[in-house]
Specification:
- This protein has a domain of 41 residues.
- It starts with a helix and ends in a 14-residue tail after the last helix.
- Strands 1-2 form a two-stranded antiparallel ribbon.
- The longest helix has 43 residues.
- Helices cover 66% and strands 10% of the residues.
- With 97 residues, it is mainly α.
- Keywords: Cell membrane, Membrane, Transmembrane, Transmembrane helix.
- This is Lipopolysaccharide assembly protein A.
């Protein structure tokens, strides 16, 4: 199974490498205020991929921090629950006739 996974990874890498090498034509990305960035097409695609990756990571940070805080709170509660003694209550006795 690991061989198949590595084979798929190698195939995807080779396909992306061929795509990158075949898209080296110059392209111009026009920004606001008249600024233009002439660069190879694959570099522009890579830049957008990196910007999207950073934006996704930044948007996930609040959730990660919230989960870490909740995890710490639950660990403290578990530690406190383990330290308190357990009181075993005796079941009530049946009525005597």
């Amino acid at each position: 199974m690991k061989f198949i996974v590595w084979l798929i990874r190698v195939l995807v890498f080779v396909l992306l490498l061929v795509l990158a090498l075949s898209n080296t034509q110059p392209a111009t990305l026009n920004f606001l205020a008249g600024y233009a960035w002439p660069a190879p097409l694959i570099l522009i695609g890579l830049a957008f991929f990196v910007v999207g990756l950073v934006a996704g990571l930044v948007s996930a940070l609040p959730g990660v921090f919230r989960l870490r805080l909740e995890n710490g709170r639950l660990k403290r509660e578990l530690r406190a629950a383990r330290e308190t003694p357990v009181v075993v209550e005796e079941p009530p006795l049946p009525p005597l006739i």
